[in-house]
Every structure is written in structure tokens, then in C-alpha cells.
Amino acid sequence: MDMEFEKQLEELKKKVGKLEKGRKDKMTLVVFSGELDKLMAAMIIATGATAMDMEVKLFFTFWATAALRDPKKSVKGKTFMSKMFGFMLPKGAKKVKLSNMNMGGMGKAMLEGLMKKKGVKSLPELFQAAGELGVEINVCEMSMDLMGFKKEELIDYPKLNICGVGTFLSDAEESKIQLFI
Asked: Strand runs (DSSP E) across the chain, as ranges?
């Protein structure tokens, strides 16, 4: 073989080896929507993936962060805009609406009734199950800052971190599956 071909072959082997090592049994999800049906889909996929022995990391950003607010907690020292966002956005998983057919809350009530009848976990129960299964929730620092949310007002969750997009990108780079909901 000529030297140039061997050199190119070695470089190619290194690149393939790097790709094989970089991908783990890991899934990352960007959770952007703050709507009940989309949040439930994210949490069902996350808990299902952990049942398949995958490491799961969720990156909650923009409207989805409101679902992580604990309705029993309040913080002081907010600006006018922060108070307005806090007033306009749902406070916690129980307050989020459906993306379609919400019909002033009637659609949501109908769906929740069906879920209860069929034994489907509610969104707060899915958060609890995900926490017990080791699903990590990373909350976008920029979204928290823009909306004036503080870590002290978020739900008590075992693996909840405030971080930037760099953390998500690093996690996504190592993941076999990346989703956006």
C-alpha cells in the first residue's frame, strides 16, 4: 500500500473509533412546550427510556419551566416583569393547559378523567416517577433569568440543576437519541 492511503486509513479508523466511544446509551430531550399533552409525552418517553436502562437528561427551557414551579413556594425580591411572568404563566404541573381542545379547561378535565379511569399517571405523578428512576432535569438558566424564576420556587426534584445551553449540547453530543418537544 502506498503511504498516503495508509495515512488516510488510520485517520478514518480514529474518527470511527471516536464516534463509537462518544455515543452512549443516553437520551437528551429539549422540553420547550409548557402544554400538558407535550409535557406528558416528554415524561412518558423519559421514564420509558430509563426502563430500557438509558440515561435520560431533560433540558427544560422557555415555557416548559413554568411546569416546574412549586405552587406552595413563593419568593420575594422579584421585579415588576418577573411578577408579571409569574402571574401570567401556570404555576406548576397541575396548572398547565392542553395544546389543543383545552376549551376553557373542559378538554383538560375530560382528558384527566379518562387518564384516571384508564390508570394513566398524572403529570405530577410522572415527575415523581421520573425522579425515582433517576431522570435528570436541567433547567435553562437563561429562561429562568428572562422569566424571573428562581431556583427556590422550583419543585423538589432529586436531580434538578440550573445550567446553560452548553451543558445540553455536551449531553446531546454523547447521546444516541436527541428529541425536541
From this structure: 24-31, 55-60, 136-140, 160-163, 175-180
Start-to-end CA span in the chain (Å): 50
The string of DSSP letters for 35-87 reads -HHHHHHHHHHHHHHHHTT-EEEEEE-GGGGGGGB-TT---S---HHHHHHHH
Hey, how many other C-beta atoms are within 10 angstroms of the C-beta on 140? 24
Taking the C-alpha atoms of 148, 43, 124 and 145 in order, what is their torsion angle to the nearest 10 degrees?
Answer: -10
Number of other CB atoms surrounding residue 85 within 10 Å: 16
- Residues 92 and 122: beta-carbon distance below 8 Å: no
Give the model confidence (pLDDT) of 48-88 as tens digits.
999 999 999 999 999 999 999 999 998 888 899 988 988 89
Half-sphere exposure of 141 (CA within 13 A, CB side): 8
Closest CA to 135 of 47, 60, 70: 47
Q: What is the pLDDT of residue 147?
A: 92
For the chain, what percentages of helix, strand and coil (3-state, to nearest 5) are there?
55, 15, 25
- Ramachandran region, residue 15 (left: φ > 0; alpha: ψ -120 to 50; beta: rest): alpha
Asked if residue 147 lies in contact with residue 89, where contact means CB atoms within 8 angstroms, the answer is yes
Q: Contact at 8 Å (CB) between 143 and 65?
A: yes
